[in-house]
Amino acid sequence: MAANVYASATDGGSGGDPAQTRSGTGVRTAGATVDCPDVGSKLTSVPGQARGEVDKELALLDEQIAKAYQRLSESAQQVQQDSGFADNAIMNPLKDKRAATLERIAIAIDRVGDRPDGLEALAACTVRDSGNQAPAQGEGQGGDGGQQPGQEQGQDGQGQGANGGQAGNGPVAADFAPITSVQPEAGSPRQGTKASRGSFTTDCGVNENGLFNSDNIIAAPGVTNGAHHFHDYIGNQANNAFASDQDLANAETSCVDQGDKSSYYWPVLRLQNGTQEQDANSPGGGIEGNAGEIVTPKQVTLTFVGNPRGKVTAMPRLLRIITGDAKSFVNGPANANASWSCTGFEDRQLKDKYPLCPQGSDVVRTFEFQSCWDGRNIDSANHRTHVAFADAAGNCPSGFRPIPQLVQRIVYDVDAPSLEDGGRTTPLFAVDSFPEQLHKPVTDHGDFINVFDEDLMREMADCINDGRECGAGAGAEPGDKPEEEPQEQPTKTPEQPTKAPEAPQEQPTRTPDAPQDGNAGGKPGDTGDGDGGKGDGSGGKDQVAKPPATNEPAPEPEQPEQGGSPTAAPRTDEPEVLATPTPERGAANTGDEGGTKDDAGEDAGDGLGQSQAVGTATSAAPTPSLPSRTEPQAVGSGGLADTGAQLWPAAAGAVLVIAGFVVLRRVRRG
Predict the structure, then answer these.
(1) Where do the domains of the chain lie?
(2) 8 Å CB contact between 404 and 372
(3) Is the entire prediction scored with pTM above 0.85?
């Protein structure tokens, strides 16, 4: 296994009581968790003037539940000795705190609108069975269920505590299932004659910058540690609880195309191997049950696709979308949208289990975001009602219009855990979660804030509606198939002119470097993708600095030539979509889906958003001496014809010179 891991994570802030251990310490109640009604999802209408205050109170409700779960997890002995302990010492006080918070929410809304009815009925919570079977005494880690999260326990940190996992609140063996046991899914809905068949892929890396926090600017703006779990962030580099819209607009971005400053984030994935991250003693981290080694994705692909029934409308700037439900373990699956699979098996998807992948196959985590917008709001009180999913046939609900659908694919190089020994030989893995959600795979979720340049967003919509493939990461499709497609392009490139082969030879040397630098396309792990070299196009960040000066001339002449791979039209347009030179550098790492070997190369080459212009194999290599290489490619195949055209003037001159000598000689003789 070659999992890329960051040994540190930023402090999530002080949303809770750092002096107390939330979970992962003390004696735990066998398979129990706290189940409370989700107030936020029921507040579908909150006046704008009250939104800020309501959001903070909702975050406080989450904090109260986290503390109640902490108390419950430490009170197994008291609960066993006194059947009324849980209610008297934990649940009743929680109900009182929630009732007071709910009253403040009602008052805040009542000041500027109509007081909501029935909030008081949401105060009571219950202790419920988690369904996790408590390990037998002495099982797993020598029966030491009282170890602190992050203790130097090596692989022995697994399976401790009634709810399993390194911190005692999950995961457990029952949370995993072999991907080979899943039946393949039916295909996508048939596309109509007016379908928008194109796609736009943006390349924003894999969080090489190590940007983490336990905030959630969408669900809990202005609240430190509002998520109670850590997120990976790519794209916008200013996302935290206190970022304003202007902060997001002015921020730097990890995306190859600097016109994409959007924020893409999701809960980190951790190996339950006993490692202490730097967040081990921080809210949102170890003290809230999120323990273990944070795994860096091998690659991340961000693709916007169309609608099977009609054209898409450009997304409004600053549109916010949350897909999935971080509390679906207790809320139920109504809003769940988790999807887990393995490379080579992506026609099989798991919704409530982590996949056990065959050797050589990587874990794949996919989010298909809502693709219908109400045409008016960039957010809503419960962060859901302003967007919706299309139905099975691709139709949006009445009053909603299709927008580009973000499909986010995250690949991890992690081995299938050894369930028979609780993960001691090969560690379990799990996403971060709210403490009481026990790291269940069904709680997985993704967040997106659209901060695309408006012109670029319009170009995205046009590209998708026109049936083209565009963007800095274009050229590879999710899944394993892309690997084959990209391989074809590189083979074509060398066939062009005699000098063309030199380009591909040079690129492979660059590619390997890129992954190490942390390609913007999310390919740190791509090196394992076979010859990722080919294309990883890696737009490593180091390379980014080199091409700019020479990149501009190269792509222009080369684009037309290579446009022939998929279709000439798409390639010509793509450069227009991402007209900045930046993309060239980063090349479409994204394309490297699933470790696609050669894909990388192709996609990678996609620099300027011309991704498809796949200057990849050719434009990247020519960088050292672009002028000379560009010309041969334009003239290359002409060979003899070109040579003759250049030599005939010289031949004519030679004939005249000889004739002159003959005439002169005759004159002298005469």
Answers:
(1) 32-129, 173-471
(2) no
(3) no
